[in-house]
Write a structure and sequence with these properties.
The complex is a heterodimer of chains A (114) and B (109). Chain A is mainly beta and 114 residues long. Chain A is built from no helices and 11 strands. Helices cover 0% and strands 55% of the residues of chain B. Chain B is globular, with a radius of gyration of 13 Å. Classes of the chains: A mainly beta (114), B mainly beta (109).
């Protein structure tokens, strides 16, 4: 199936731990994103990579470090997890050549920090 | 002022009703506009892009008024399966998508 996929779907961990979320897209897109959706349902951009280069870096704690090994993959590593990091994290991708920035989302990773 | 504002609802309508959602945005330099749909505990999915001339896709009609910085979505003949949260999304000239909080629609039998 052509899609944006994320692993894991659910992640329950304790405060202070370090965890990673992986994202892959096989849509042939050149731009990938990480979003955070909190309990109030606001969806906010965290990072964006275009052809493995970081192009958007919102005000996010430096405990969050994205890595793009190639343009089909974008991973998110989180150090020293805090209770406030509990949220759903969505990966998305788009093709920069279209100009209008239509983005396609993965199924999300529901992170719960206890 | 939020960059993209929507009435969160919920809008409770009977099957077959026509319902309209509105959205305003603050950045006059915004370049493109979308409606996304998000079902409970699922990812947002692109419903339709919004063009200045207005556009229609089946029972869904989207309109854009750049002068008033206002976007609308009209759903005709509502189905139970239309129940979801509808997200108004604006592509700022920074290249970022800015999402509204969403408007929740509940279609009742």
């Amino acid at each position: 199936d052509t899609a944006v996929s994320q692993t894991p779907k659910y992640l329950v961990t304790q405060m202070g731990n370090d965890k990673s979320i992986k994202c892959e897209q096989n849509l042939g897109h050149d731009t990938m994103y990480w979003y955070k959706q909190d309990s109030k349902k606001f969806l906010k951009i965290m990072f964006s990579y275009n052809n493995k280069e970081l192009i958007i870096n919102e005000t996010v704690p430096n405990r969050f470090s994205p890595k793009s090994p190639d343009k089909a993959h974008l991973n998110l590593h989180i150090n020293s997890l805090e209770l406030g990091d509990s949220a759903v994290y969505f990966c998305a991708s788009s093709h920069s050549g279209t100009g209008n920035n239509e983005q396609y989302f993965g199924p999300g990773t529901r992170l719960t920090v206890t | 002022r939020k960059e993209v504002e929507q009435d969160p609802g919920p809008f409770n309508v009977p099957e077959g009703a026509t319902v309209a959602f509105n959205c305003t945005y603050s950045n006059s330099a915004s370049q493109s506009f979308f409606w996304y749909r998000q079902d409970c505990r699922k990812e947002p999915k692109l419903l339709m892009s919004v063009y200045s001339s207005g556009n229609e896709d089946g029972r869904f009609t989207a309109q854009l008024n750049r002068a008033s910085q206002y976007i609308s979505l009209l759903i005709r003949d509502s189905k139970l399966s239309d129940s979801a949260t509808y997200l108004c999304v604006v592509n700022a000239n920074t290249g970022k998508l800015i999402f509204g909080q969403g408007t929740t629609l509940q279609v009742k039998p």
